[in-house]
């Protein structure tokens, strides 16, 4: 059962919006290999703000995700792509509705 999550927000540097979008679209392949990540979304919040939302069964899975390859890739390009470092908010999942069948990208 999903009990916790992580919400990451990033603000693209001017002219880097398409690269940030591509980074998030490509990230789904990496996330699909993470056995601990139950649900993941790459998000566009507005024209320069992007994000990721992940949900997990327990805090140990969230810790594994936050120290995993995708976050490392994001941080490695942080100075190049973002106006400030990503913000990471640890959240508790209070309720969720998920489809019986989830299509993978």
From TrEMBL:
The organism's place on the tree of life at top rank: Bacteria
InterPro entries xref list: Dimeric_a/b-barrel (IPR011008)
Gene3D superfamilies: 3.30.70.100
Protein name: Antibiotic biosynthesis monooxygenase
Organism the protein comes from: Sphaerisporangium rufum
């Amino acid at each position: 059962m999903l009990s916790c999550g992580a919400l990451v927000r990033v603000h693209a540097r001017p002219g880097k919006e398409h690269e940030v979008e591509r980074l998030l679209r490509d990230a789904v392949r990496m996330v699909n290999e993470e056995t601990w990540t139950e649900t993941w979304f790459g998000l566009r919040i507005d024209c320069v703000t992007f994000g990721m939302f992940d949900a997990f069964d327990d805090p140990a899975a969230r810790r594994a995700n936050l120290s995993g390859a995708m976050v490392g890739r994001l941080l490695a390009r942080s100075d190049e792509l973002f106006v400030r470092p990503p913000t990471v908010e640890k959240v508790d999942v209070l309720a969720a509705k998920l489809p019986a069948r989830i299509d993978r990208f």
